[in-house]
From TrEMBL, chain A:
Keyword RNA-binding in record: no
Originating organism: Komagataeibacter sucrofermentans
Keywords (A to Z) from UniProt: Cell membrane, Membrane
UniProt cross-references to Pfam families, sorted A to Z: YidD (PF01809)
Protein name, entry field: Putative membrane protein insertion efficiency factor
UniProtKB/TrEMBL annotation, chain B:
Identification of the protein by name: Membrane protein insertase YidC
Any Pfam family hit: 60KD_IMP
Alphabetical keyword list: Cell membrane, Chaperone, Membrane, Protein transport, Transmembrane, Transmembrane helix, Transport
Alphabetized InterPro entries for the sequence: Membr_insert_YidC, Membr_insert_YidC_N, YidC/ALB3/OXA1/COX18, YidC/Oxa/ALB_C, YidC_ALB_C, YidC_periplasmic_sf
Similarity comment: family membership: Belongs to the OXA1/ALB3/YidC family. Type 1 subfamily.
Biological source species: Komagataeibacter nataicola
Topology in the lipid bilayer: Multi-pass membrane protein
TM region(s), chain numbering: 364-384, 489-509, 529-551
Amino acid sequence: MSTSSISLPAHVLRAMIRAYQLVIRPIWGAHCRFSPSCSHYARDAIALHGAGRGSVLAGWRILRCNPWNAGGHDPVPGTACGCGMQNSKSLAGR
Amino acid sequence: MDIKRFMVATALSAVVLVGFEYFLPQQNHKTVEQQAPAPAPVTAAADGAASPAAEPAAKPDAPDPRVTIDAGRVGGSLDLRGARLDDLVLKNYHETVKDGSPLVRVLEPRGEEQPNLVEVGWTNVSGGQVRVPDANTIWTADHEKLTEAQPVTLSWDNGQGQVFQIAIAIDQNYMFSVTQKVVNHGGEGVSLYPFSRVERGYTPVETGGYLVHEGPISVIDHRLDESSYKSLRKGAVPPGNIAWSKSGQGGWAGITDKYWLAAVIPQQDSDVAANYAFLSQGGDKGIYDVGFTARAPLVVAAGGEASTESHVFAGAKEVPLLEKYEASLHIPDFWKAVDFGWFAFLTRPIFTVLDWLNTMLGNFGLALMAFTLLVKALFFPLATKQFHSMGKMRQLQPKIKALRERYKDDQMALNQQMIGLYKQEGVNPASGCLPMLLQIPVFWCLYKDLYVTIEMRHAPFFGWIHDLSAFDPTNIFTLFGLIPWDPAVISPMLQLGLWPMAFGLTMFIQQKLNPAPSVDPAQQKMFQFMPIIFTFFMARQPAGLVIYYCWNNLLTMLQQTVIQRRMNTKAAATSQPKLPAGKK
């Protein structure tokens, strides 16, 4: 995904999420019920929809990521289906 | 690849641990390091407008006359030279948990090691020529002792027609009421600005790190200002030495420690200017000065009198007491003297619940445990749901094993196959991000409450825990005291008490009960080290937090066992092996 046209707040948020992925998630373990995982979803959503709307989308995704939701494949709205490659790529990136 | 990622993850975890060590406050509860004695008596001529025009005081040969203070929870005295409230100890608080530990001193005279005092007075309007009392004025008192039942009035005649009076009363806790009165017998009216201020003549060692604010604090126009000693030092430039001022109506201002506060509180309907000043004595040494000056002068007509009222708080920041004062004296946001932090909207209610449980159960450790039960009850549906799906996962284990065997060389294909299997069976191995995230605020609030509130300070638990807000003092590296050495000499990491070990054990068992859903072997390996890393991390955290976590893990295991047993009996009763699992 191209990151050239995104705003500074979006960059900062994405960097923070990346830091979480590298530092905190190895400690807590991965608990996400979705693919791509909530953090990947958040990064993609912020890149695609900007810091504001992207954060809202990510927040809504985290709220849905609970035992009552079946989970599964749930890409960011607006992305091409990418069912094959993107899915497995996100998982591989865990 | 996996090995590399494992190494990176390990290194990063180490960074987190070291980072915590660096950013979190020191957990030692030693008394504050003693400062070098202040060189000669000093005057806090902070500024002409903020404090009386005080000429350098020579150390008096005879001790100053004093009024004794003896009230419900404080004792000390008041210096009649300069009418300073500069000697106060708290009767209910000791410096350490050891027997015979000295009482906590919140106010100390100038010239001592840690001067901290409160002063009220008047300054002239610009061009005014009234002789106002200063730091060397000897006042006369109408009583020798200030008690709850016996207020004391100090008075001084300036010899030019004005009599100054300061009436001081104290309640059963930490609040002084101060009435400043000027009686004008002269032929002309006089105009003066009343002021009150807190002065601290040394730079304390800040024990709170980034977790709790210590230093100048104020609420003016409902705005909380928590500044640092450093910013005061940086901002204050001669000749005024005022770092900054703030104008507003009412409020309160002072200098706070983690647990103690000295604050002045003007009449809440008066227009005041709060001044923050620092008088440097070289380097970090100097006098910090936070106080209020009235913005409109007090005008005393010839032959008349006029007075202003204010309050002085000097004592422990007990949350219910601050709330009581906030309500009864209309002091805006007085509870904010306790640094509940950004998440006060959560931290404070949780503290209220804990405090209430403590009054019911008589022990903060038990209160923590009862609170954990409440939280567990709240999240019960979530956990039940999660354990049900875990139980189903266990029934799928043979199939998963078969898949692992078949695709052991192709991670990506394995992932795809597993996802397919989960979908087909209608289960999801992960508990979800929301349940994980929900635990954080609770944990954080407990941490913050344990760390900042005085109620948790020196709160005992059973056995060897005498202070829930300090780490477990036992240490396996000394074989619990059998070997007389201090492992901290080698590394502060060599600290591992009994409770943290119990915590590590519960975490280990819990992990065995719930194998991580991850399919990445590097991550699996990482998880195995987590109980060890966490144990060492928790060993340096407040014992109350470790006990909470231990108990929480135990309850979780209990819950899981009960739910699984129920599921197993149900499965055995219905025994329909060929039917596909339900949608849930």
